[in-house]
Amino acid sequence: MSDTLAPAPDQPKAAGRSALRSLNFTPRFWVSIVLIVLVALFAFVGDMLYPYGSNQRVGSLFDEPTPQHILGTDNFGYDVVALLMASTRNSLYNGLLAGTIATFLGVFIGILAGYIGGWFEEFLMGVTNIVLAIPAIVVLILISVSIQGTNLQFLKGIIGMSLVIGFTSWPWTARSVRAQASSVATREHIDVAKLSGARTFGILLRDVLPYLASYVVMAWVLQVASAILAESTLSMLGLGPSGTASLGVELHWALAFNAVANRAWWAFLPPTAVLTIISFALLYLQSSLDEVFNPRLRRGKKKNLAKAAERRAEAARRLAAEIEAEVAP
Amino acid sequence: MSEKILMRATNVTAVYAGEEGADVPAVDNVTLEVPEGEILGLAGESGCGKSTLGNALAMIANPPLYVLGGQMEIDGQSIGLTTLGKSANARHRPYRGQVVSMLPQGAMNAISPTLRIRRLVCDVVHAHHKDMPRSEILDRASDRLDMLGMPKRVLDQYAHQLSGGMKQRMVTVISTLLDPHLLIADEPTSALDVSSQKQLIEMLLAMVEAKIMRGVIFITHDLPVLSMVTDRLAIMYAGKIVETGRTEDLVHQARHPYTSALLAAVLDPTEATRTKHVLGIPGAPPNLGHPPTGCRFHPRCAFVKPRCSAAEPAFRDEDGHLVACWWAEANPGVTVPVEVNLA
Amino acid sequence: MWYLGALVVAVVLNFLLPRLVPGNPVDVIVSSMGSGGVSSGARQKIYEAYMQEFGLNQPLWQQFFSYLGNALHGNLGESFSYYPAPVSGLIGFALPWTLALQIPAILIGWIIGNVIGAIAAYKGGGWDKSVFTGALFLSSMPYYCLSILLLYGLAVGLKWFPVGGSYSLGLSPELTWSFLGDASHYYWLPFLSLVVINIGTQATGMRAMSIYELGSDYVNYSRSLGIGDAKMTRYIFGNAMLPQITGLALSLGTMVGGALVTELVFNYQGMGTLLFNAISSSDYPVIQAVTLIITLAVLLANYVVEVLYGFIDPRIRAAKTGES
After folding, report:
1. How confident is residue A131, by pLDDT bands cut at 50, 70 and 90?
2. How confident is the model at residue B106 (pLDDT cuts 50, 70, 90)?
3. Looking at CA atoms only, how far is residue B153 from chain C in angstroms?
4. How many domains does chain A have?
5. B259: part of which helix (H) or strand (E)?
6. Which of A71, B21, B81, B82 could form a disulfide bond with A266, CB atoms 3.0-4.6 angstroms apart?
7. pLDDT tens digit string along B286-332?
């Protein structure tokens, strides 16, 4: 960048833009963003354009793809494309809700433990470690089994599932946030804030949380991904949301009706593919955010590296020529 | 010249790959000699390129550091120092540890925590002598430890079981296991307490005495240590060497204003400076990305003249005492007056 | 230390949750029998007998202690749907299949994944990039998605493997070479789908750890002594492996869930399939027993890893044996 184009530091708007630019979003970041946007478009916009509804029976058991129904029908005779849109939408809702709840709880508990310290920290982390030691899936299975036996219709739906997943998957985040928060808590600016009489909650919000922001964003992305997978695992075991579609429920029925052995690929490949794409895109996004936030991890763009190497070789040649010229006379 | 030269490095240039693509030169066309059997001190403020020069000479420059050019003559061999090109690493590997060895800055973590020291010792020797049996290697290592007055049991221990001073001495033994011609010691004493410092220095001197290595480059910003152990000094400023000569000459008859200021700022107060306020050198080291024109020290120099910013001074040889300074050029044989410098 | 706390919490949860269900499990059985035209009086009798049998008419705390006492004796109750088959027998049949699948898949996946990850980090460049993307792709893929793809591609499509099951029809499990040979034919696909994903997960983790180790002083120092790449990769591996061992212990719980569903996809008769069938028939004792066994196994594995870790890391070992 030439000096004349560099923003003057006293222009806040320009400074903000350059701060954003200095984050240096990698190609990896853009690839994952594009994948996520495509999936979201398919789920939310596709639904408006597609002629068939997800609860509209258009055929019979595993009808083969036709020009009208390009992915055929599932075991109940629903249009697979329409169903897939609804499923993806529900799975995304579930991931966002559960992931947000889990991240919020984890950050809240982690920050509180890390900042306050002492017996409070020991207690919270003791609870966290115990919950972490028990396989999450076991807790989810037990809770879901219990819920299925009740007549709490609300908890049986996709929102109920999200709540259950969200309220059980915070410990990971809590543990890592605590480690970060306790290191931030020892910094000088916290002492300054304390001395100036700020309230604990205010300090947490203004002086601790911003330092963890990048980490929280990454934790959230991971929580969304793992919530989507948890839902589909439960659904495949037959503990899915009742009465609504989801990617896991779709796979559950496809397996229950032996779609694989019957070569009804349209019934099980699409949800498998969408699930894989969502999960991959979110993990890829998380790893690219890691690079965006921690430039140390960046291993250099290939093109720039090659250019720099060329330039360096040129400098070395010039140097050798200069030395030659000095020695010659 | 009467002395035999062990190592002569010429035209060494090294750059750090910059954030925005532009490279920052950290060592700029430096020439350096180490006479046989001597300890050469390399001093300067932090960031002057002394460690970078050490890494270039030890042939261990790693991205983002690149050595663009330079030639090293040592023991009749001529080695290209550049790290450009794919084969550089493979070309340099046989020299490392055997011809030029490194005693690193952060010796505290220099030994892998999951490795018994015995293993590292064997691996170092095997890297250069593939077929030497382990028993022979360990015998040799034990003998070396014996000779240097260190307990043999350290071979069976892990790094974390040794004290800081012991660890640093053990690293020194490992670095010199293959009797390298030249040892480059990069701030080896900076993390140690005073008594461990003394032990390490005594050991290094004993090793030179025993001709385990034939020359040492001792890099530090700790000038009291340097004036104690070195035969010669080279003072570096902003990627260039500005003055070099016998240690007592430099300490007592500094010819470059920077040398003088550096010594005055850090050395034990001597007769000449005891009554004066010891000040730091005014100003900050320059940005190596855009070094000052002419003499790089001119913006901070008390003796600055117009020509200093116009042209770069060449080395002036005063009986083996080399200095690159316009003031020294104009005042041959005169020691830099400390009072003026610190005024 | 946490294990004990976790164990208590897990057992209590395991006991409590299914019992919070208002309509108790006996209702389910009785109503499923009820379709056979049994008179309401007889039904009431059956109901009471079952309540007695399962101890559901006692206060909750008494139920808990009898549950605990029975569990300690290996008595996990009787299955509802295969009544009166003891649950321990069902578990005893399913567990070996699951262990035979999981343990090799985890260990082999761990070893191969870590070697690949360390090499990728050390080599850098294009190799690293492709390994990283591939490994990340695999590690983000749910086990059962890969299972479905493999089943469809290799078994249904290419017919290289049987389409699901654990052994050929007509055989019964026994420790003979012919049976093991037959079962191994069915074993490959589930094993492959688990191991491939474990490799991906471990490789991404190891790569990150190794990149971190690459910048450490001991790597630079070893390099300055002329030590070659192969040795250095081994040093890096030795150090980066330690957090990977702890990581494995921590992720066991997560791995279990996916692995259970993998069995389901292949109709492989381990704990996952047992659990699935129990869930679909509301067979609470079996569900409870399966979740209890899974929890115990994960806690035990965690404990074993912790003990092992003490032997592997010289720093901890030295502290334990008092060397200094």
Report:
1. confident
2. low
3. 12
4. 1
5. helix B257-266
6. A71
7. 777 788 888 888 888 888 888 888 888 888 888 889 999 998 888 88
* Residue A314 C-alpha, separation from nearest chain C C-alpha, in angstroms: 22
Supply the pLDDT for residue A16.
45
Distance of alpha carbon C218 from alpha carbon C212, whole angstroms: 12
Give kind and range of the element (H or E) at residue A224.
helix A209-234
Helix (H, G, I), strand (E, B) or coil at C86: strand
Q: Which residues of B touch A311 (CB under 8 A)?
A: 23
User: How many angstroms separate the CA atoms of A278 and B332, rounded?
Assistant: 76
Is it true that the peptide bond before B285 is cis, omega within 30 degrees of 0? Answer: no
Please give the domain boundaries of chain C with CATH numbers for all domains.
2-72 (no CATH), 91-323 (1.10.3720.10)
Mean pLDDT for the stretch of residues A224-242: 86
> How many other CB atoms are there within 10 angstroms of residue A55's CB atom?
13
Q: Is residue A2 part of a domain?
A: no
Residue type, B59: M
Cα end-to-end distance, chain A, whole Å: 41
- Residue ranges making up the domain that contains A272: 25-294
Residue A250 CA to its chain's centroid (Å): 22
C4 near A CB under 8 A: no
Q: Does A306 touch chain B (CB under 8 A)?
A: no
Hey, what are B283's tokens? 């100003």
* Number of neighbours of residue A229 by Cβ within 10 angstroms: 28
- The reply to whether omega before B64 is within 30° of 0 (cis) is yes
Q: Give the span between the Cα atoms of A35 and C133, in whole angstroms.
A: 15
Cα B128 to its chain centre, rounded Å, is: 24
Which chain C residues are closer than 8 Å to A143 by Cβ?
17
The two beta strands, B316-318 and B240-246, are unpaired
- Does A273 reside within a domain? yes
Q: Average pLDDT in the B40-44 region?
A: 90
d(CA C258, CA C264) in angstroms, rounded, equals 10
Please tell me the distance in Å from C218's CA to the nearest CA on chain B: 4
Query: Taking CB atoms and an 8 Å cutoff, what residues of chain A touch B23?
Result: 308, 311-312, 315
CA distances, C68 to each of A145, C13, C185, C197, C299 (Å)? 21, 12, 40, 37, 18
Q: What is the domain-level CATH number for residue A47?
A: 1.10.3720.10
**Radius of gyration of chain B, Cα coordinates, nearest whole angstrom:** 21
What are the structure tokens assigned to C195, written together?
């191991």
Q: How many CB atoms lie within 10 A of CB A119?
A: 9
Two tokens, residue C164: 């699901």
Interface ipTM: 0.86
pTM: 0.77
Categorize the per-residue pLDDT at C255 as very low, low, confident or very high, splitting at 50, 70 and 90. Answer: confident
Angle, helix A265-293 to helix C125-140, in steps of 10 degrees? 130
In C296-315, the residues whose Cβ lies within 8 Å of chain A are 298-299, 302
Q: Residue A104 domain-assigned?
A: yes
Q: How many CB pairs under 8 A join B and C?
A: 87
The vertex-B132 CA angle with B129 and B137, nearest 5°, equals: 105
DSSP H or E stretch at residue A120: helix A118-133
**Residues A115, A204: contact at Cβ < 8 Å?**
yes
Dihedral (CA of B60, B63, B67, B68) sign? positive
CB–CB of B112 and C239 under 8 A? Answer: yes
Give the separation between CA C116 and CA C237, rounded to whole angstroms: 10
Give C81-93 pLDDT, tens digit per residue: 776 778 888 888 8
| Selection from C23, C14, C15 nearest residue C61 by Cα | C15
Q: Would you say residue A20 lies in a domain?
A: no
Please report the pLDDT score of residue C310 as a whole number.
Answer: 80
Instruction: Write down the mean pLDDT value for chain B.
Output: 85
User: What are the backbone angles phi and psi of residue B105, rounded to the nearest 5°?
Assistant: -65, -50
B23 interfaces chain A, CB cutoff of 8 Å: yes
